[in-house]
Design a protein that fits this description.
The protein has a five-stranded antiparallel beta sheet, with helices on one face. It is globular and about 35 Å long. The longest helix is centred in the C-terminal third of the chain and has 25 residues. The protein is an alpha+beta fold and 180 residues long. It starts with a strand and ends with a helix. Helix 2 runs antiparallel to helix 3.
Length: 180
């Protein structure tokens, strides 16, 4: 299977978060991951969270890298493999997961990453660090949405995922408004 690796340089500017989301969404098409699939939405939320963390907490330029699985068995429309997202920055300060309470406007980013990604972590990278997360993709493209919902333990788990997405979107909107 082929893996497509693409990267985008990020300036330490809050406007870069929206640019990174648009860029990542545009890169999904060639990988066989549909824009309307749950995997795509989850990936875009993870891009928002990790790029926001780099922009807000380091004040340094960063590099966003996506490693996307290629389409296998194109006639059957199957996509398999692991999607990996990395954000590398020049700050050696390790990520510090926090736990947000009630109406806190920050502190949920790494909790969202932990809850949505199959795996995540960070590694020293030169004088800085690289934060990464992975999403597994191993079902036929036509059954991903159905299988994800069925495997999620029903409506409560689906609602929790939707709530996490809404919280992340609100946090980003609050961050973007404060930056203007």
């Amino acid at each position: 299977m082929q893996v497509l690796q693409v990267q985008l340089e990020i300036r330490p500017d809050p406007a870069e978060v929206g640019r990174a989301r648009r860029w990542a969404r545009s890169r999904l098409a060639g990988s066989g991951i549909g824009d309307d699939e749950p995997l795509a939405e989850t990936l875009i939320l993870l891009v928002s969270e990790l790029v926001t963390n780099a922009v807000v907490h380091t004040g340094c330029p960063a590099v966003l890298r996506l490693l996307l699985p290629g389409v296998s068995g194109a006639a059957a429309g199957a996509v398999s493999g692991t999607v990996r997202l990395e954000v590398a920055d020049a700050s050696a300060k390790p990520p510090a997961p926090r736990h947000a309470e009630g109406d806190d406007t920050g502190g949920r980013g790494l909790e969202l990453v932990d809850g949505l990604a199959d795996r995540w972590g960070w590694d020293p990278d030169g004088t800085g660090k690289r934060i990464w997360c992975e999403l597994d993709r191993c079902r036929p493209a036509s059954t991903v949405a159905t299988a994800t919902y069925e495997a999620s333990a029903g409506p409560a788990a689906y609602q929790n995922g939707a709530n996490a997405y809404e919280v992340g979107a609100r946090e980003y909107d609050d961050f973007a408004r404060a930056a203007v």
